[in-house]
Amino acid sequence: MHIRKLTPEEQHPIALLLLADPSLKLIEEYIARGECFVAEEEGSIIGEYVLLPTRPDTIEIVNIAVAEHSQGKGIGRELVNDAIRRSREWGYKTIEIGTANSSVGQLLLYQKCGFRIVGVDKDFFIRHYEEKIYENGIQVIDMVRLSQDL
Ligand code: ACO
Ligand code: ACO
C-alpha cells in the first residue's frame, strides 16, 4: 500500500468520499478547494483523505475513508498519520478533524493519532444535512471537534 496525491487528470474516488460524508454537495464544495490523497494497493484505490486549509496556519482533514473490505487493517491510522506528517511539512501549526457524536471508532482512532477533543459543534448535522442520519443506533446530531498542534 502506498499513499500519493490524486493527479489533476484523475476523478475523485466519490464512492469512498461518500462513506465519510453522505452529502455530495458538501463533498463537491471542499474537493474543489482542498487536496485529495489516496491509498493505492495493487493498482486500486482503497482509501483517501482530503486536506483543506481553513484559517491561517490551520488545516483540516475534512474527509477520510477506507474501502469497507480493507477496514480494520491499520490503513485508516496510516492515512491519518500521513495527513499529520504532510501538514507539518507544509508548515501548518494546527491540524483539525471533526466527526459525529455517534462515531465511536473514529473518535478512538483520532485520539490514538494524537488529536484532543476541543469542542462540540452542536446541531451541525441538523443544520447541514437535509435527511436524518443514524449510526450505531443513535441519531447523528452534533459534530465533535478535535485538534492537534503540529
Ligand atoms: N470500533 C472501535 N475502534 C475502531 C473502529 C470501530 N468501529 N474503527 C477504528 N477503530 C480504531 C481502532 O481502535 C484501531 O486501533 P487499534 O489498531 O489500536 O485497534 C484504530 O481505530 C485504527 O484502525 P484502522 O484499521 O487504521 O482503521 P480503518 O482502516 O478501518 O479506517 C476509518 C478507519 C477511516 C474510520 C474507516 O473505518 C472508514 O472509512 N469508515 C467509514 C467512513 C468514515 O466514517 N470516515 C470518517 C468520517 S469523519 C471525517 O471524514 C473527517
Ligand atoms: N461499546 C459499545 N457500546 C456499549 C458498550 C461498549 N463497550 N457498553 C455499553 N454500550 C452500549 C450499547 O450500545 C448498549 O446498547 P445496545 O443494547 O443498543 O447495544 C447500551 O450501551 C446498554 O448496554 P448495557 O448492557 O445496558 O450496559 P451495561 O450493563 O454493560 O452497563 C456500564 C454499562 C454501566 C457503563 C458498565 O459497562 C460498567 O459498569 N462499566 C464500568 C464502570 C463505568 O465505566 N461506569 C460509567 C463511568 S461514568 C459515570 O459513572 C457517571
From TrEMBL:
CDD domains: NAT_SF (cd04301). Keywords: Transferase. One of its GO terms (molecular function) is N-acetyltransferase activity. Pfam families: Acetyltransf_1. InterPro entries: Acyl_CoA_acyltransferase, GNAT_dom, NAT_camello-type. It comes from the Bacteria. Residues 1-136 form the N-acetyltransferase domain. The keyword S-adenosyl-L-methionine does not apply. This is GNAT family N-acetyltransferase. It comes from Heyndrickxia camelliae. The lineage of its organism: Bacteria, Bacillati, Bacillota, Bacilli, Bacillales.
